[in-house]
Amino acid sequence: MYKQNQVKYKWRDRGVLFATLLLFWLMLNNSLALDSLLIGIVVSLIITILFCSGLSFFTEFRFTPKAFVAGILYYIYFFKELIKANFRLAIIVLSPSLPINPGIVKVRTQLKSRMGRLMLANSITLTPGTLTMELEGEWIYVHCVNVTSTDTEEATAQIVSGFESYLEVMYG
């Protein structure tokens, strides 16, 4: 039973990757001419075969209504955090005393899926003032421009927990 589900998800993931690539190709070309469509199909198929282990953020995504809602809320939360981090970093940079306290903090993630952890690490890195340095099992090492706490639990609450609550629903 487990093996059958794995095969089913593998083909579903490949189908989603192929469809995403083909749709992107069609949007870039802005044409449904037969030659353009055939080239798009061939190129999308080649990329899907070469990257069959997964290239899409839909890999391991839970296709449930709750996951789609969490996905939308995740992006709203991400953009809110992005704007807040930009303002915090701008204040630091514009301050004559340059009040920084750089350092590396160790945080823990509860996410089990590879794609969920990857999305978390990328979200941390894309937020100004933080950079994911290493992802090792449940531990993430993050460089921060301004470290406010070296306590693992407190740093996890500050850096990871907001993103993680949505990613848990989306990826597990």
Structure, described:
The chain is mainly α. The protein folds into 2 domains: 49 residues; 107 residues, no CATH class. It is 62% helix and 11% strand. The chain is built from 6 helices and 3 strands, in the order αααβαββαα. It has a 3-stranded antiparallel beta sheet with strand order 1-3-2. Strand 2 and strand 3 form a beta hairpin. Helix 1 runs antiparallel to helix 2 and helix 3 runs antiparallel to helix 6. The model has no long low-confidence stretch (mean pLDDT 86).
How are the elements arranged and paired?
Layout: H1 2-29, H2 34-50, H3 65-94, E1 103-108, H4 114-126, E2 130-136, E3 139-144, H5 152-159, H6 161-171
Antiparallel strand pairs: 1-3, 2-3
Mean pLDDT score, rounded? 86
The first-to-last residue Cα distance is: 20 Å
Strand order of the largest sheet: 1-3-2
List the domain count as a whole number.
2
Radius of gyration: 20 Å
Which stretches of 5+ consecutive residues score pLDDT under 50? none
